[in-house]
Amino acid sequence: MINSGKYLVVVAGPTAVGKTDVAITLARNFDTEILSADSRQFYNEMSIGTAKPDAQQLSAVKHHFIGQLSIHDYYNVSRFESDALALLDKLFETHNLVFVAGGSGLYIDALCTGIDDFPDPAPELRAFLKGIYQDEGLAKLQKMLLENDPEYYSTVDINNPNRLLRALEVCLSTGKKFSEQRLNNQKNRDFNIIKIALNLPRPQLFDRIERRVDQMIENGLVDEVKSLLPYRHLNALNTVGYKEIFQYLDSEITLDQAVTNIKTNTRRYAKRQLTWFNRTDGYAWFEPTQLSAINDFISAACR
Predict the structure, then answer these.
(1) Structural domains in the chain?
(2) Residues forming a β-bridge with 101
(3) In what order do the strands lie in the sheet with 283-286?
(4) Fewer C-beta within 10 Å: the chain N or C terminus?
(5) What are phi and psi of 192, to 5 degrees?
(6) Contacts (Cβ under 8 Å, ≥6 apart) of 7
(7) Is 63 within 8 Å of 37 (Cβ atoms)?
(8) Residue 183: what pLDDT?
(9) How does residue 3 score in pLDDT terms, banded at 50, 70 and 90?
């Protein structure tokens, strides 16, 4: 434990488990602010399908990294690490404790322990892999990653081509698994880190996911996605909740089927998130209703 008197409290867990509400309640208890580590909520144009905090939630506690980017902006985990650390330096001038909440494990790990700086691959390899993606599609990249690095395959968002391409570049250029080379050398932080993860019994979590998707449809998800049709080629939009509605708008599937597919793919995503956080050391697990116990745990860890 670092004796700086400054604490970053992580509130992690699968989608729809209740991270936002828990983080807001805790942040109000400790009179502090929240950084978002949900990489889909970074984009201003994507609100309904990413379950961004609503106006009331955002007014309850100051949030950062919510809607600060356009889908046209290039952003990656390395930039997030740099931006978040710079922001923490400022926040720690007036707060002893700051929260980071979200379900993007890679971004949380980058903030807590840093990311490895891999050398850029040979241009020929990058062109080769991009050619495979263009000619044979995402399924081929998924198959290649499963063969080369099943451990990383089990945790990564396998529908994100950029993540797959980057992992394959590292695997093929070094001859070693990407998962074995990630975060081997932790970077020192000048603040303490307290890690909390939220979970629920699987039936309850899946029920929350289904109800959230239904609420998204009711709130206007189809219209939101329709407004983004001209930009569907952008990587930010190649994500659950958007790609399924694009298929509906293309008349490939019915709306009912699109909703069913969103629910199925979101459940799968939640399972991958749980795998990620279970494989990461240092998390104390709670149910989202255990607010008093979580509050006491944080207070004790700060003594």
Answers:
(1) 7-115+184-301 (3.40.50.300), 123-181 (1.10.20.140)
(2) 11, 36
(3) 63-64, 34-36, 97-101, 7-12, 192-198, 283-286
(4) C
(5) -80, 155
(6) 96, 97, 98, 191, 192, 193, 194, 298, 301, 302
(7) no
(8) 54
(9) low
Two structure tokens written together for 242: 């958007």
Q: Each residue of 49-63: pLDDT tens digit?
A: 999 999 999 999 999
Q: What's the pTM value of the predicted model, to 2 decimals?
A: 0.83
| Residue the block writes with tokens 């390899």 | 125
Among positive and negative, which fits the CA dihedral 116, 122, 128, 133? positive
Q: For 13, how many CA atoms within 13 A lie in the half-sphere containing its CB?
A: 23
Residues 296 and 189: their CA atoms lie apart, in Å, by: 24
> What torsion, rounded to 10 degrees, do the Cα atoms 276, 279, 283, 285 define?
80
What does the alpha-carbon distance between residue 63 and residue 53 come to, in Å, rounded to a whole number? 9
Contacts of 249 (CB under 8 A, 6+ apart): 222, 225, 226, 229
Residue 13, classified by CB atoms within 10 Å of its CB into exposed (0-12), middle (13-18) or buried (19+), is: buried
275: its two tokens: 């795998």
Tell me the two tokens of residue 19.
Answer: 């991270």
